[in-house]
């Protein structure tokens, strides 16, 4: 039971650190402080994240300092991908309306996008926590099946990127 609690805590920690590092990047982009495209991150969906986690933790483990940084990077990519897709959809829909009403872009980001994205941020945090915790528990329960987990993880990565490229709107 202690190992299960440890896995849940690790999953929550990685997900929390990932969203805390992703939010400033996403908000800097949408507020206009930084001019960069977040479109490549949209291909890191739930299936890709699950595949990356399963492949990495099966091959290398999950409890060393290196594993900490890799898992935080995976969580960061997941959160940036999820939040950027959501905010780009919201941005395309309502930006013209807000700007035509006399609001500045900064007011639009704070008054509209920030309020609308709070639920999405919580959903992203919980989804990522669930992914991490599930993979950690599966690795603990199915030890000795590393080759199978590597193959499944690789297949999930391929399927996730394929799915993301097919869903992408041009």
Compact overview of the structure:
The protein is mainly alpha-helical. It has helices spanning 2-31, 46-60, 65-100, 105-141, 146-167. The chain is built from 5 helices and no strands.
Instruction: Indicate the multimeric state.
Output: single chain
By DSSP (H or I, 4+ residues per run), the number of helices equals: 5
Radius of gyration: 18 Å
From the N-terminal CA to the C-terminal CA, the straight-line distance is 48 Å
The percent range for helix content is over 70%
How much of the residues is beta strand, in percent? under 5%
Largest sheet: none
What global shape is seen? Answer: elongated
Q: What is the number of beta strands? A: 0
Q: Pairing-aware structural class of the strands and helices?
A: mainly alpha
Mean pLDDT across every amino acid position: 85
Which runs of at least 5 residues are low in confidence (pLDDT < 50)?
Answer: none
- Would you list the SSEs in sequence order as H and E? HHHHH
SSE layout and pairing:
Blueprint: H1 2-31, H2 46-60, H3 65-100, H4 105-141, H5 146-167
Helix pairs in contact: 1-3, 1-4, 2-3, 2-4, 2-5, 3-4
Give an overview in words.
- This protein has 170 residues and is mostly helical.
- It contains 5 helices and no strands.
- It has helices spanning 2-31, 46-60, 65-100, 105-141, 146-167.
- Helix 1 runs parallel beside helix 3 and helix 1 runs antiparallel to helix 4.
- The longest helix has 37 residues, at 105-141.
């Amino acid at each position: 039971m202690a190992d299960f609690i440890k896995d849940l805590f690790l999953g929550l920690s990685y997900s929390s650190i990932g969203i805390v590092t992703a939010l400033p990047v996403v908000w800097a982009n949408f507020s206009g402080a930084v001019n960069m495209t977040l479109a490549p991150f949209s291909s890191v969906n739930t299936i890709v994240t699950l595949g990356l986690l399963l492949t990495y933790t099966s091959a290398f483990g999950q409890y060393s300092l290196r594993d900490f940084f890799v898992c935080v990077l995976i969580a960061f990519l997941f959160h940036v991908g999820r939040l950027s897709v959501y905010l780009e959809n919201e941005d395309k829909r309502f930006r013209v309306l807000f700007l035509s009403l006399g609001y500045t872009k900064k007011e639009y980001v704070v008054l509209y996008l920030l309020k609308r994205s709070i639920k999405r941020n919580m959903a992203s945090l919980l989804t990522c926590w669930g992914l991490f915790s599930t993979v950690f528990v599966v690795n603990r329960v199915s030890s000795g099946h590393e080759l199978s987990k590597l193959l499944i993880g690789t297949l999930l990565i391929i399927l996730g990127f394929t799915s993301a490229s097919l869903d992408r709107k041009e």
